[in-house]
């Protein structure tokens, strides 16, 4: 069975093979490749600051990783980039599927790069972690923007929770800004609370609409119309144009029912056709006017600080909850308390007091 | 100065006064009175179960107290009442100030007691703790119901937070039910999240509206119309009647835009005049129809269990937050981290991680 039994006699010893060289050339190659594929945090930071898109992409991958060693490295990179961040206009874009978001972002992004802007396009799509899809996954939907050297497109990070996805996107913004991208576009699709999350990380919120789509009630109910700094009615071309003009009047009337915003900015309604590249420049002009108004009255900077505080508290609250409920003893006791509540033997409040006393 | 100096000689000793009797009659009276005013938890429970309104009122006062000894006693009373609770219809009533809530509740309550119902009227009004007022404080607004022996009216508990007020109201419901009240009415005024809190503790949610008040957008925005099981257009009398009928058509149209409810109950719109006692009986018939539908399809019981779970989790989350943020070291470190965030020296996420590591 063992080799020992096979070669008991010294006579049967086979011809010796010379030892391998101490310095194995292919090993060295492997290590070199490995080092090249895992640059240090310092290397990545200096790459990002030079505007190197490969360093940026690799760093974002570290941010999106769930490994704890990656996390440490990602945090070092974010810290290194932080002093160079913050110098951009962050624009949120939302709209129901079919409104033409991809076509719009492509036309809008190309318009901006023609104005010598550097544009990063990110996405917050909490559904992508479930469906394994991503609203920006299919880059072919933005054919020309993908090839544009002044544009950087990154699909949505996946994650267990909207909070997790949002954190990764927020941190990615910092890296993109440090890499010199001066216009950050964050796309989201109308799923769950994703608009609220995006609204909490951008300076300007653009709502894309279609004429006569009849989803106004949804928009009002979910507070999306209230969040919009501008409503752009897309596909305002050909036979649609007349209806789009009517919709503009309607939305203007709806917007006037809301109280004035703290920004002192009166939300605008505008028409555009991403397909025919109409009205795209006007939207950019509106954004510049917004930045001008809110920078002058201090709202722009103030909002960013409020957003920071929001994310600070939000992150703490989420972690407090998940740290509490993930404890094995709490999981078990929770089940038992729910049974007692259902049997009318305890109240939700007494059960809560008891569970909190266990921790 | 001292007495010693004044009476140095035994000769100056004054005539002795006989010792007081060992059993001081007035003391005994005091102790007896005190005992009478502080009955034991057992006494209060048996009083409540007999339907004694004084025992009920005293117990609710214990629930509302912030003293920890009262809290312990209150918890014992709730536990004792729990097996006898749950047997009522819990009705939430909301509407903006001026809609005629008090007049409506008075007419509705009197109608129910004529049907041999026992009616408890509670309130959730988180604003009352700030203004020191209470929406039910002015009992004179319900003159006849106050005198009705089959009705029990209790003003809103005060509290630091909506969660605190809601908890006290939820626990008060248990006591009222144990005392034999079979219809619990919970009034709230359209302030902050109070409607959502009330919706989470009742079986049936009634929204009072006025014709042409123009607050539909607010109702839709804040999700109140969506919560309503019935919308009653009040003050549908005299010159208002025509407009009220038009409003009924409008609200019916609006309600049809919402998806079907899990309860399988299609929300109704009805007209009433609390002042002229018109349409009050029809609302009670609607509530009975609702209870019948939802008891048959299991939704009624299921909703109560879901509400219990909601309050369990809600209470835990609130306590986790308040326990964390009330720590002196966290308060101090939080301030410092916010300064660092504002200076762009850390991110909200890194600051959150740091603060959580301190706890």
Automatic annotation (TrEMBL), chains A, B:
Gene, per the UniProt record: meaB
Domain of life per record: Bacteria
Region named Disordered: 1-39
Family: Belongs to the SIMIBI class G3E GTPase family. ArgK/MeaB subfamily.
NCBIfam families (UniProt xref): lao, PRK09435.1
Bias-annotated ranges (Polar residues): 21-30
Pfam families noted in UniProt: MeaB (PF03308)
Biological source species: Corallibacter vietnamensis
InterPro entries: GTPase_ArgK (IPR005129), P-loop_NTPase (IPR027417)
SUPFAM superfamilies membership: P-loop containing nucleoside triphosphate hydrolases
Lineage: Bacteria, Pseudomonadati, Bacteroidota, Flavobacteriia, Flavobacteriales
Name of the featured protein: Methylmalonyl Co-A mutase-associated GTPase MeaB
């Amino acid at each position: 069975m063992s080799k020992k039994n096979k070669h008991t006699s010294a006579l049967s010893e086979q011809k010796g093979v010379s030892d391998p060289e101490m310095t194995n050339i292919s090993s060295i190659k492997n290590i070199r490749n490995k080092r090249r594929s895992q640059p240090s945090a310092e290397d990545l930071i200096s790459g990002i600051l030079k505007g190197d898109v490969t360093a940026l992409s690799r760093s974002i991958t570290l941010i999106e990783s769930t490994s704890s060693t990656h996390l440490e490295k990602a945090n070092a990179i974010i810290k290194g980039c932080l002093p160079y961040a913050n110098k951009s206009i962050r624009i949120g874009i939302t709209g129901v599927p079919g409104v033409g978001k991809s076509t719009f972002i492509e036309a809008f992004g190309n318009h901006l790069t023609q104005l010598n802007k550097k544009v990063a396009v990110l996405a917050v799509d909490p559904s992508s972690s479930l469906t394994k899809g991503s609203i920006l996954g299919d880059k072919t939907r933005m054919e020309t923007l993908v090839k544009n050297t002044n544009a950087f497109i990154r699909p949505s990070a996946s994650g267990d929770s909207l909070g997790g996805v949002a954190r990764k996107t927020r941190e990615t913004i910092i890296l993109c800004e440090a890499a010199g991208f001066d216009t950050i576009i964050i796309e989201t699709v109308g799923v769950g609370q994703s608009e609220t999350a995006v609204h909490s990380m951008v300076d300007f919120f653009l709502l894309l609409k279609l004429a006569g789509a009849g989803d106004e009630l949804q928009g009002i109910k979910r507070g999306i119309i209230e969040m919009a700094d501008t409503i752009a009615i897309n596909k305002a071309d050909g036979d649609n144009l007349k209806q789009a003009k009517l919709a503009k009047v309607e939305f203007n009337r709806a917007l006037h029912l809301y109280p004035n915003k703290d920004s002192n900015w009166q939300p605008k309604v505008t028409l555009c056709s991403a397909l025919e590249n109409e009205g795209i420049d006007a939207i950019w002009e509106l954004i510049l006017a917004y930045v001008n108004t809110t920078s002058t009255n201090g709202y722009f900077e103030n909002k960013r600080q409020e957003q920071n505080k929001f994310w600070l508290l939000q992150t703490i609250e989420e972690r407090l909850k998940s740290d509490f409920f993930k404890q094995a003893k709490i999981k078990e006791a929770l089940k038992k308390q729910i049974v007692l509540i259902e049997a009318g033997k305890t109240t939700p409040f007494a059960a809560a007091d008891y569970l909190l006393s266990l921790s």
